[in-house]
Amino acid sequence: MKVTQHLEEAKGTLFSFEILPPLKGKSIQSIYDGIDPLMEFKPKFVNVTYHREEFIYKERENGLLEKIAIRKRPGTVGICAAIMNKYDIDAVPHLICGGFSREETENALIDLQFLGIDNVLALRGDPIKTESTFRPHLHGHHFAVDLIKQIGEMNSGNYLVDDIQLEPTDFCIGAAGYPEKHFEAMNLQTDLEYLKAKVDAGAEYIVTQMFFDNKKYFDFVEACRKVGITVPIIPGLKPIKNLNHISFLPKFFHIDYPEELSRELLKCKTNEQVAELGVEWGIKQSKELKDAGVPCIHYYTMSNSTQVKKIANELF
Ligand code: FAD
Question: Which CATH number fits domain 3-313: 3.20.20.220, 3.30.390.50, 3.90.76.10, 3.40.190.10?
Answer without folding.
Answer: 3.20.20.220
